[in-house]
Amino acid sequence: MTSILDLEPKIVWKHFDEIRKIPRCSKHEEKIREYIVNFAKQHNLEYQVDKAGNVVIRKPASQGMENKPMVVLQSHMDMVCEKNKDVEHDFSKDPIKVKIEGEWVTAEGTTLGADDGIGVATALAILEDKNLKHPPIEALFTVDEETGLTGAFALEKDFLKGRIMINLDSEDFGVIYVGCAGGGDSTLKLSIKRENIPTGMRVFEVSVTGLRGGHSGCDIHEQRGNAIKILARILWKVKKDMEIRIIDITGGDKHNAIPREAKAIVAVSDEDKFREIVESEARDILEEIKPVDPDMKVDIKGSKGEKALDVESTNKVIDLLYALPHGVLAMSYDIPDLVETSTNLAKIRVEGDKVTIVMSSRSSSKTELQATRDRIRAIATLAGAEVEEGSTYPGWKPNLQSKILAIAKEVFKDLFGKDPEIKAIHAGLETGVIGEKFPGMDMISIGPDVRNPHSPDEKVHIGSVEKFYKYVTKILEKIE
Ligand SMILES: [Zn+2]
Predict the structure, then answer these.
(1) Which CATH number describes the domain made up of 182-389?
(2) How many of the other CB atoms lie within 10 Å of CB of 209?
(3) Which of 114, 214, 274, 337 is the Cys-Cys partner for 219 at CB 3.0 to 4.6 Å?
(4) By C-alpha distance, which of 69, 58, 56, 32 is closest to 155?
(5) 179-218 pLDDT, tens per residue?
(6) Across the strands, what pairs with 307?
(7) Which residues are the active-site residues?
(8) pLDDT for position 1
């Protein structure tokens, strides 16, 4: 069986093979940093480490390229550590076991760490390779991209000299990424009053389950069902026709996940009618979302409770949930099929005398992001709820006039005989944070084909790694 050390370009795979042996889960980058710093020392390259643990290595230009602008090659040191339940693996010390499967390199039951190990390996190969024509290079290796972009957030303003940056962390060869979304959460707090459940009312639990959920950025364009919104629509229909009191309502979990499940315990005045309304509304909704969410289930079962929200509180909760936006709010004018602005109604809980609702909004436009959060605030105000806005992280607005983009497009066409695709993603990237920190930074993000990142099925396409190395090094050659 061939080893990955026999794959081309050997100079990239050699580093990838070393990197895979080094524990590097997010927030535990000490050992990989040591490897990178030792590499700089061995090759007599200038390097710096900042307080957060980010590393930059500088390589002088090749002969004749001294006057070209400096280029930052950026990758992140950490990886997502996930494994299958039946696999024994200690990410704090065991090397990742890799194997070649057809055209792909993958790991045995764990994440592979090609995200972003292959970017790190590519940068190290370029720093080492003596056969390249290139401008001055700054290779930036950040920490903890995966759990909050904390390395990028911690960068000091003088850590980078270059103002052109190639991020090596995207996952589709043949696509040049030119933008990402910024985001920010809003937490709504609605005060509620409780009373005894009026006599004659019966108590039930209504639950919405079986939805696909997914990432509130990358999957939002599919318009999958949001369990909380579906539950709200059903309860609103019930409220329109009969007496109802909420006893408890809960749904969703993480701010960046589309809620897959939600349930409410309610007291209602007319059991038969209640069942009829819930079932008929559930049928209508399933009919609407069947193409993406065919397994949605709405169930009713008997339940218990003593105190319920009073009429006014019940009405406010249902109206507020029904009125709050969820999903795609605007598409990009510049990039086809790109969601520019969205929001995720992510979570609801009843805690003490308050109902808490978490909304997570995203946009590649800073002003649209703020407008979305303002709109959420306006709706909350109508219901008499208070709003706390969490901090924002910046987006990266596509600049189709970018110089590095023009070079990357031309080089791609020269090398591979076709035009690359130009895309942006509706999620946060380090480029958003770095672009905000270093004004005027001209950026693109590229990478080889990586599939199923962050899961034990992660794999990297061998042929695309070879093409990717050719591509990045040729871009460097053409920098003006
Ligand atoms: Zn990554």
Answers:
(1) 3.30.70.360
(2) 14
(3) 214
(4) 56
(5) 999 999 999 999 999 999 999 999 999 999 999 999 999 8
(6) 196
(7) 78, 145
(8) 59
Pairing of strands 442-445, 164-167: parallel
Are the CB atoms for 21 and 123 separated by under 8 Å?
no
- The sign of the dihedral angle between the CA atoms of 99, 467, 13, 422 is negative
Per-residue pLDDT reduced to its tens digit, 254-263? 899 999 999 9
Cα 119 to ligand 1 centroid, rounded to whole Å: 9
> How many Å lie between the centroid of ligand 1 and the Cα of residue 168?
9
Ligand 1 mean position, distance from CA 86 (Å): 25
Distance from the Cα of residue 346 to its chain's centroid: 15
Kindly tell me the burial class for residue 367, based on how many C-beta atoms sit within 10 Å of its own C-beta (0-12, 13-18, 19 or more).
exposed
The Cβ of residue 130 has, within 10 Å, a number of other Cβ atoms equal to: 5
> Residue 15 C-alpha to ligand 1 middle, in angstroms?
17
Q: Does domain 4-180+396-477 have CATH number 3.40.630.10?
A: yes
Quick: pLDDT tens for 172-183.
999 999 999 999
Å from CA of 150 to ligand 1 middle: 13
pLDDT tens per residue across span 421-471 = 999 999 889 999 999 999 999 999 999 999 999 999 999 999 999 999 999
pLDDT of residue 148: 85
Alpha-carbon distances, residue 404 vs 71, 400, 455, 466 (angstroms) = 10, 10, 32, 21
Rounded to whole angstroms, the Cα distance separating 411 from 466 reads 15
* Confidence (pLDDT) at 334: 86
Domains in the chain: boundaries: 4-180+396-477, 182-389
The answer to whether 461 and 449 are in contact (CB under 8 A) is: yes
Average pLDDT over the chain reads 96
Averaged pLDDT, 309-332: 98
